[in-house]
Design brief:
The protein is elongated and about 90 Å long. A six-stranded mixed sheet has the order 4-3-2-5-7-6, sandwiched between helices. By secondary structure, it is an alpha+beta fold. The chain is built from 14 helices and 21 strands. It has three domains: 2-241, HUPs (Rossmann fold, 3-Layer(aba) Sandwich), CATH 3.40.50; 257-335, Uridine Diphospho-n-acetylenolpyruvylglucosamine Reductase, domain 3; 349-452, no CATH class. Residues 3-12 and 450-455 have low confidence and may be disordered. This is tRNA(Ile)-lysidine synthase. Its main location: cytoplasm.
């Protein structure tokens, strides 16, 4: 733990540093002044300690939203057990409420990423609608992020590095110190005699970021003293470029994002024809934009799946497997099926009291509109060769009826069929495509919706 009381010559420089940092912070805070609450992610390290002190000082002179700190305790190293106590003491001295959240870090390939995921999961639990979480990343972090991602072959979105703000849960994640350097933060901390924690893992060069920070950047800045600010500026240029790519994607989506003929099927879908008109690069851009909220995307070498999906013959039913689901093509429409969509059981379900809605495992629910037929009834799924009585049309082959209405292939296997004994009594109305049943009732199916696991 560090406590700095180096005054004297540093004093004048420190005072000016305080005003420089405060000015940068004020500018970054301007858009968020009317948020219902502000939270600070407080690790106890240098960056978040300076940010917390700056905000607490500002709160003495300005009217700000209610301010509180959050410390996430990962429990990954013995030294960390003392940190919540340190953070509590700092917050007490500033008169600021602190919430300590203990998380379990999943073991996996990248400990850094797993710890980060656990941290952000904790943050999403705290952030209310419209509220803001401030984190302490600065310009040096931005430069390290850009170089790190460059070495991993990231695209424009990755090289735009850390955005100054982005949505988080129902609120916002904001990084108000991105324009400040680590040296400025250190000078501020010395000037105000702040105490902070040095995380021992920050010195471990086995972590890629630490290797860049301690081994690579000193060599770079020896030869190019402005390397950090130049790289941070490059990240800003790339962020602007990504903004333009997103704008282009939204324009390209307008023509492809037409309502589906099956409004009851709550799955994201696009019309293929307008996408075919675009160059390959624009197709990838619009699909990245559309799929980013839905799944992790492949790198640029792995888009062959998209081309074979796009170029397959009209009667084929190709699909492209992605990390968190599948992109299906049915005729001239693309459909996104999240992994949860396939978690469905096609075992038959008995329906002894046909009045109530019937929950179908992983497949939404069924209900009657009008007076239900006498039970006992059962719900089964397609085996092939089903025949159904259609009012005014006689006995018809179910497969042919489904072909007529163009129902996507991936839905057919989970279409609930209503049986009375061995007789196929009814198929769901499916948005008016089926005429009324012989009685005065209709069978209505509500498949899984977005809030039931289709994100």
């Amino acid at each position: 733990m560090h406590s700095h009381a180096e005054r004297g010559n540093d004093h004048a420089r420190g005072a000016s540093m305080t005003s420089v940092l405060s000015a940068k912070l004020l500018q970054a805070l301007a858009p968020w002044r009317n948020a219902p609450a502000w939270h600070v992610a407080f690790s106890g390290g240098l960056d978040s300690t300076v940010l917390l002190h700056l905000l607490a000082t500002l709160a003495n002179t300005d009217t700000l939203p209610p301010l509180s700190a959050i410390h996430v305790h990962h429990g990954l190293q013995a030294a960390a057990d003392a940190w919540p106590g340190h953070c509590q003491a700092v917050c007490d001295s500033l008169g600021m409420p602190l919430r300590v959240m203990r998380v379990q870090v999943q073991s996996g390939a990248s400990l850094e990423r797993a710890a980060r995921d656990a941290r952000y999961q904790a943050f999403t639990e705290v952030i209310g609608a419209g509220e803001v979480l401030f984190t302490g990343q600065h310009r040096d972090d931005q430069a390290e992020t850009l170089l790190f991602r460059l070495l991993r072959g990231a695209g424009v979105r990755g090289l735009a590095a850390m955005p100054a703000h982005r949505p988080l849960a129902g609120g916002h994640l904001v990084r108000p110190l991105l324009k400040a350097s680590r040296a400025e933060l250190e000078a501020y901390a010395r000037e105000h005699q702040l105490a902070w924690i040095e995380d021992p893992s920050n010195a471990d060069p086995r972590f890629s970021r630490n290797y860049l920070r301690h081994r690579v950047f000193p060599v770079l800045t020896q030869r190019w003293p402005q390397a950090v600010s130049s790289l941070a500026r490059t990240a800003e240029h790339l962020s602007e470029a990504q903004g333009l790519l997103d704008e282009l994607a939204r324009m390209d989506l307008q023509t492809a994002d037409q309502p589906s003929p099956f409004p009851w099927l709550a799955l994201p879908s696009l019309v293929l024809a307008p996408l075919r008109e675009l160059s390959d690069a624009r197709q990838r851009n619009v699909l990245r934009h559309w799929l980013t909220p839905l799944t992790r995307l492949p790198d640029s070498d792995h888009w062959a799946g998209w081309y074979s999906l796009r170029d397959a013959k009209g009667d084929a039913q190709p699909l492209w497997r992605l990390a968190d689901g599948q992109l299906h093509r049915c005729g001239e429409r693309l459909w996104w099926l999240p992994t949860t969509w396939s978690e469905f059981s096609d075992a038959s379900v008995s329906w002894p009291c046909p009045q109530n809605p019937l929950e179908l495992p992983g497949n939404g629910q069924l209900k009657f509109i009008g007076k239900a037929p006498e039970g006992p009834l059962a719900v089964r799924y397609r085996q092939g060769g089903e025949i159904i009585e259609v009012p005014g049309r006689g006995r018809r082959d179910l497969k042919r009826l489904l072909n007529e209405c163009g129902l996507p292939g991936f839905v057919r296997g989970r279409l609930p069929l209503l049986y009375q004994g061995e007789q196929l009594l009814a198929v769901p109305t499916l948005a008016g495509l089926w005429a009324m049943s012989p009685g005065d009732w209709q069978l209505h199916w509500m498949p899984q919706t977005c809030d039931q696991g289709l994100s």
